[in-house]
Write a structure and sequence with these properties.
Blueprint: H1 10-14, H2 20-71, E1 80-88, E2 91-101, E3 107-115, E4 123-132, E5 144-145, E6 148-149
C-alpha cells in the first residue's frame, strides 16, 4: 500500500480559519446588538413603571374625589387647599386637593393632584370634579317621597 502524505502549503494554511480582524468585527457587531437589546429592555421597564404610576395615581385621585363627595353630600366642602398621604398598591402617594368656588350656589370645583414623591416632582395623575349640595328627601314607610310613587323601571311589572 501506498502512503498518502498531506502537503502543507502556505496558501492552504491561510484559508483554514478566521483572521483576528474578522473575529473583532464579529464581536463588535454582537456587542452592538447586546447594547441595543439592553436599551430596549430598559425602555420597556420604564414604560411599564410610568403606566403603573398613572393607573394607580388615577385610582388614588378618583378615590379621594369619591371620599369628598360622600363626606359632603348635603353641604359642599370648604374652599381651600390641603395635602395628605395615601397608601395604595404598597406605595405612599402625596395627594394635593384644592376646593374652589364655581359661581354657582352650593357647587364647588375639586381639583386633586397625585404625586409619587414628597418633592412633587413626578405627578402621576390630576383629576377634577364638581361637588354639588344634594337635597334631602324624607321617605315614608311606603317608599313614596313628596307624594310621588317610585316605580321600578328595571323591567317587570314592578
Amino acid at each position: 500500500m501506498m502512503a498518502v502524505r498531506a502537503v502543507h502549503s502556505p496558501a492552504a494554511s491561510r484559508q483554514s480559519g478566521f483572521t483576528l480582524i474578522e473575529v473583532l468585527v464579529a464581536l463588535a457587531i454582537v456587542a452592538v446588538g447586546i447594547v441595543a437589546t439592553a436599551k430596549a429592555v430598559t425602555r420597556s421597564i420604564d414604560v411599564a413603571q410610568y403606566t403603573e404610576d398613572r393607573i394607580l395615581g388615577t385610582w388614588v385621585a378618583s378615590n379621594r374625589i369619591s371620599e369628598i363627595r360622600l363626606a359632603n353630600r348635603y353641604t359642599p366642602p370648604p374652599v381651600g387647599g390641603s395635602s395628605s398621604e395615601v397608601v395604595m398598591g404598597g406605595r405612599t402617594w402625596l395627594v394635593n386637593e384644592n376646593v374652589s368656588e364655581t359661581g354657582v350656589e352650593n357647587a364647588v370645583r375639586v381639583d386633586v393632584e397625585v404625586f409619587t414623591d414628597k418633592n412633587q416632582t413626578n405627578r402621576a395623575a390630576t383629576l377634577f370634579s364638581y361637588v354639588v349640595k344634594q337635597t334631602q328627601k324624607k321617605k315614608d314607610t311606603l317608599g313614596e317621597a313628596d307624594g310621588v310613587r317610585q316605580v321600578n323601571t328595571a323591567g317587570g311589572d314592578g
